[in-house]
């Protein structure tokens, strides 16, 4: 995994996406081969190729779910910010509450 000066991994590095695309291609190839040889005489081989396809695709699915979770959290953050913006502009109590939450979030990160 590619790291930057901050020590955190780069989620947009080329190697991660190359591995993801490679996994999808291998999974597709194994899946197509399993479908082509599926028949009464080749059931075990078709099942084995189907399992191999699943093993190749599984890391890509986990990665996609992780990125979707990040996008959902980012969208929710934007909605909450848009809803709280008028209250932040008017109320001092809400500003104090938001400042405390921000400090807590910075300490956890």
TrEMBL record:
Highest taxon, organism lineage: Bacteria
The entry's keywords: Membrane, Transmembrane, Transmembrane helix
Ranges annotated as spanning the membrane: 17-37, 44-64, 70-91
Protein name: Uncharacterized protein
């Amino acid at each position: 995994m590619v790291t930057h000066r901050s020590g955190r991994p780069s989620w947009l590095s080329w190697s991660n996406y190359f591995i993801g695309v490679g996994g999808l291609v291998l999974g597709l190839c194994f899946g197509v081969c399993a479908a082509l040889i599926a028949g009464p005489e080749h059931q075990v081989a078709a099942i084995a190729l189907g399992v191999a396809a699943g093993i190749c695709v599984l890391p890509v699915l986990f990665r996609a779910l992780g990125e979707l979770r990040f996008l959902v959290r980012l969208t929710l953050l934007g909605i909450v910010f848009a809803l709280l913006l008028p209250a932040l502009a008017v109320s001092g109590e809400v500003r104090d509450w938001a400042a405390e939450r921000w400090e807590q979030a910075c300490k956890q990160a």
